[in-house]
Fold these 2 entries.
Entry 1:
Amino acid sequence: MSHADSAPSSITAARYHDLMVPNYAPADFVPVRGRGARVWTTDGRELIDFGGGIAVNSLGHCHPALVEALHEQAQQLWHVSNVVTNVPALALADALCQATFAERVFFCNSGAEANEAALKLARRRAAMVHGADKHEIISFSDSFHGRTLFTVSVGGQPKYAEHFGPLPGGIRHLPYNDAAALEAAVSDRTCAVIVEPIRGEGGVVPADPAFLAAARRACEAHDALLIFDEVQSGVGRTGSLYAYTQSPVVPDILTTAKGLGGGFPIGGMLTTAAIAEHLPVGSHGTTFGGNPLGCAVARRVLDIVNEPGFLATVGEKGAAMAQAVARMGRQHGVFEAVRGQGMLLGGVTAPAWRGRARDIVAAGHEAGVWCLVAGGDVVRFAPPLVLDDDEMREGLERLDRALAGLR
Ligand SMILES: *Cc1c(COP(=O)(O)O)cnc(C)c1O
């Protein structure tokens, strides 16, 4: 039986260019079905998914427990708006608060929206407590926080904000992992420092513990809020439920999305009760945020990721994968190092392959393994956290073949 059965024959990857706004450059294959870490395409190819829909499919494709959660909720209630609350949203908020520093949760539909809420909350709190002068947001070079106008302005990749001006003001960018520059820059005018505990899009670069500690101290000294953007690093990706738990530093606000819904769109902003007070009735909102479908699925994701022993397997599998990729990268002269944490890994291209991460990923597609880039110089691996031994072995074999073919 062909796995392409469900795809109308007139739909091919090439039609993208006739039908869609050209802001993406999709690969030449079109997935139609997925199970675990495997996907099948309209033209009958099978690929091992080492990208997880960009760190989203935390439990792989069509995990039976998530299919069940979605199916059960779909027969109960889909959408009610925030004119009322709903049981799945409260249950998910409860689970998130029990598992983290948080005491209050705001739900939305994406990472950018979670960051938008965090940044607006930080601005509003500073304005209410200290006055309008305390509005400066400090962010870092090569960081990524989403694609809304505010989040591309706060993000540290100027190309994403180019030609979209005028941009929101009061934002400063500092070098990442430079504790001294950070301590010198934070002042009484600072309302928030926003940082990724592991820079994801910007090359898979973990933050130094000393840098995060400096951020915490500087925020404390000037009553600024420390925002951790864990949209990519959260929900088990690094081997802990959230990466912040791997250092003594606790943020004031944490944003989460991507892996939270395991493929169903949902985002969240987590904070303390005292800070949450500064988003009172009417100050912020979103129609779909906290909808029962997304919350029911995310609740099941959290239950599974929090099962005893689950997170330890993420660390083990990530370490094994990092070792294998480093070995074949050296052997074929393609990667000079592998960095990251848990199952968020970056193969750093060797000098001969600088700037050509995209070509390496394309060679992987040909060999039947689906990896991602993180900038021009890094091949990113963010496979399903439930990747099994066969999927890992077969994906790595295919990657090895792809890298060998590049020599
Ligand atoms: C992907 C990402 C975002 C944006 O999330 P969207 O759901 O695409 O809006 C924000 N921050 C980080 C760290 C991300 O990796």
Entry 2:
Amino acid sequence: MEETSPAKLICAIVLTPIFVLSLIFLLLWLSLHPHRPKFHIHEFSVPGLNQTNGFENATITFNVTVRNTNRNFRINYESLNGSVYYKDDEVGSVTLLSSFDQGEKNTTILQHELSGSMSLSTLNNKRWMEFVNDRTKETVIFYLRFTSIIHYEKSVWDRKHHQMHANCDAGVDSNGFLLPNFKDKRCIVHFGRLF
Ligand SMILES: *[C@@H]1O[C@H](CO)[C@@H](O)[C@H](O)[C@H]1NC(C)=O
Ligand SMILES: *[C@@H]1O[C@H](CO)[C@@H](O)[C@H](O)[C@H]1NC(C)=O
Ligand SMILES: *[C@@H]1O[C@H](CO)[C@@H](O)[C@H](O)[C@H]1NC(C)=O
Ligand SMILES: *[C@@H]1O[C@H](CO)[C@@H](O)[C@H](O)[C@H]1NC(C)=O
Ligand SMILES: *[C@@H]1O[C@H](CO)[C@@H](O)[C@H](O)[C@H]1NC(C)=O
């Protein structure tokens, strides 16, 4: 066996603590870094989609949950808005929460009935044809988007205020009821920095 050269020995003496410290730092970061809130869609319906005379009186109802999975951080939501889209067109929007504090391991139900403010009837002709076409194919995909500005309370690792978007796909059948394969699905959460 070769004898360890002094250079190799010095390398080991210097690198080993660096490696161990990095590992400790990584584990600390993983355990103390706050997690993003988790959104799940449970219910969504647009009854009356099968009307031939448009959407004048259509009502959209949804039930989405948002959970703070963190054990150590409360989450503050500056305000939380929900919007419903068909393709790129917003068909309705509502402010669901204004300045709200969510406790650790706590789940909040975001549930609302959008009516009156519906603007499906203002979809342009091309969109309208796409919509009618989707409906005859028995699947119409709507998107629910939740936007908020959040921050983690008492976190030393992440003190920023984050612009947050959660996007949920809501596929409905031709009668406007949520299809089983969209039920209880997790929504995608993005952060974009504001400050
Ligand atoms: C919508 O509701 C109003 C009042 O309830 C009613 O007069 C109107 O006919 C309805 N429109 C459609 C398209 O069902
Ligand atoms: C909304 O969904 C949650 C989770 O499935 C459920 O616990 C709650 O009862 C629902 N709310 C209503 C009004 O259905
Ligand atoms: C949710 O938060 C409230 C107030 O912050 C607290 O009283 C309640 O126990 C929490 N619920 C759960 C399930 O942790
Ligand atoms: C939510 O909507 C209200 C009213 O339109 C607006 O003032 C507020 O800035 C919105 N919040 C977010 C986070 O987009
Ligand atoms: C629309 O769907 C509802 C609920 O399934 C049904 O009761 C109604 O008859 C349908 N209307 C038309 C015009 O197909």
